[in-house]
Amino acid sequence: MNTQLRVLVIGAAGYVGGELLRLLLGHPHVASCTAHSRSQAGQPIARVHPVLAPLTGEHFIAGELGELAAQHDVVFLALEHGESARVAAAVLAASPTVVIDLAADFRVADPALYEKFYGVHPAPELLPRFTYGLADVVGAALAGCAAISVPGCFATAAQLALYPLAKLLAPAGVIPSLFAITGSSGAGVRPRETTHHPARAHNLFAYSVLGHRHEAEILQSWRRWSGRSDASARLLAHSGPMVRGIYLTLHAALPEPLAAGAAAAAFQQAYSGRPLVRVLDAPPELTHAVGSSYALIHATQSSDGKEVQVMIAIDNLLKGASGQAVQAMNLALGLPETAGLRGVGAFPC
Fold it and tell me: Is 145 an active-site residue?
């Protein structure tokens, strides 16, 4: 495999697209990075993403996606929900080595589960071609994958909190509660009434109550890990006053007590050797994760062993999107998993 990659980012003008460009322009195995955007075609990349000015003087391009994809080794789809399904067939037909989708279009393998949260799938025939790329869990199993769907931001945090607990909670039929707060950047570039930052500054509110779309991914994985088709978990999503990051806490009450230290030990074991997950001895702080592709996790249990709590902090645009996408690319192509991803954020921020 050529380790000097030609990479195409489709939908590169958004926040996630900008972070993808930033990571890829500094990636040791990327020779060229093409930024595609219909809305910004012809504009300098640095005009839309000013922080990239020291890294590139290139411009956004437009063009037929199949033709462009055929000229690149790796294609990232950083598009709005529904757009990936519209263009994926043409991109896949061009046969780049790997296609990585960051939208929700191909995350849920079961069309019925997808329909419950999103409506009828626009391209169900393509679903079997995509591998769900929760990189810190799937790991080396992504090697050789030609099409990968990157988990959503809330779903990433929730699943990293749930995964080590499957054998502890699922046999008892426990339904974990996942309380999560996200920053305004997760709503994208275009301001809307409830997502524009002035409406969120100094504010906090729940949304998508009793049915956030990322629950589809969470349930898909939780049921597979637990071996129970009826297993359930509940996400309580909130919009917070910060720009970046997700802070999620998990709580579960058990009918029978856990052995002393069992919860913390489960996390240490699950993420042993996973280079972009840090299991901490104390609850993480959000600002310690923002600006990085690391997940910071702390797990604990009550003195009687009947309650478990987990806290996790991630950057929604990096670990919850672009950083995990680059991690998936590295794993798919047999590159060092952390290539281009070792950077940490600024503090204070």
Answer: no
In this structure, are 164 and 288 located in the same domain? yes
Shared domain for 166 and 245, answered yes or no, is yes
Catalytic residue among 33, 145, 153, 349: 153
Both 119 and 141 in one domain: the answer is: yes
pTM: 0.95
* Domains: count for the chain: 2
- Is position 127 within any domain? yes
CA distance 65 to 128: 22
| Two tokens, residue 179 | 């309380």
The two three-digit tokens of residue 308, written as one number: 């478990």
pLDDT band at 63 (very low <50, low <70, confident <90, very high): very high
pLDDT of the residue at 134: 98
Phi, psi of 278 (to 5 degrees): -120, 115
Amino acid at 215: E
> Exposed, middle or buried by CB within 10 Å (0-12, 13-18, 19+), for 145?
buried
Residue 348 resides in a domain: no
Fill in the amino acid letter for 187: A
